[in-house]
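Entry type: protein chain
Record version: 2
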Amino acid sequence: MPGKELARGYTTGTCAQAAARAALKLLFGGKGAEVPGNVTVELPGGSHLTLPVEDTDVRWPEEGGRLPLQVSCAVRKDSGDDPDVTNGILIYTTVRRTGNPGIVLEGGAGVGRVTRPGLEQPVGSPAINQVPRRMILGEAEAACEEAGYEGGLVICISIPEGERLAEKTFNPRLGIEGGLSILGTTGIVEPMSRQALIETIRLDIRVKRAAGAAFLILAPGNYGLDFLEENYGIQPSEAVKCSNYIGEALDMAREEGCKGLILAGHIGKLIKVAGGIMDTHSRQADCRMELLAAAALRCHLGEEKALAILDSVTTEEALGKCTPKERELLGCEAAARAQEQIRRRVGEEIPAGVILFSSQYGILGQSSQAEILLEQYLQDRKKSGRKI
């Protein structure tokens, strides 16, 4: 489709990683070290990105010494053409030498703190997600090894505007208080133009159909792709990443003549599909707890359990209030309802299955047609000889 190509940006996680790299260079560079104007970091996928460094501050020990005691650097967030409240803000990383062994990662002013269970980090932790956490600590470990430094480090991420901007996000509702989150799975912000994303999904489906794929695997995002690979050996390149546009992806699968499909994803997304919500973005609809509570009542788990679910902030927190058997009942019920909603959308001619998972509890349930469709998909892949 003709038109201007949308610019990509980079995540808060990449900014914090780049600021850490710059600060570490100065911390171990000694008195003659030059303040870096730019730093190049390796992203989670292996590509590299060069970013400008701003607002550097170096503090030396009062008694003097060859190395600074503490260095702080900032990198400015660029969201590209993606509308984002964090665009243009400065993200700071401060690195301080200590006498205690080990590397400690902290969240400072403007970085939110997790206050409710069910999120990626435990209660009480700074809202620095797993991938950026790994990348920042990796920078520190590499810098210490290169410098031959055996002491300890404290790394603190801060966002001066974070607390104010967080009020414009869903962080307070999710149980992240006091600031923004340090996020990112790839390090890059893909522009979220609705039409551009939908056309990308359509192109992906067409390419897979042209390569001989009679059956399709749909997943809303990276968590679903990782789940498919870990549990079924289905590579991320095999699945159609449909983002929040599940309804449009279903329509296009029908239009392109697929013979069957499986929708696999986190219950936080797909519980909405169980209620007929086919655009799962939070700005369109939520109702996650209401739908999960309704499922609990249909499974005869009782009013008390349904009320406990309604009082939860995330589906992971709600599942934590259930026994393993109750989670299985809820998963199968939600998957069955989602399968029925998909059937209403695409019609009887395209069989569809649903697989639900939880980040904490793994596979929760699958609908009646999911297992046979998965087997048909794997047989179709083997028969066609498609590369994965």
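Comment: The chain is about 40% helix and 20% strand.
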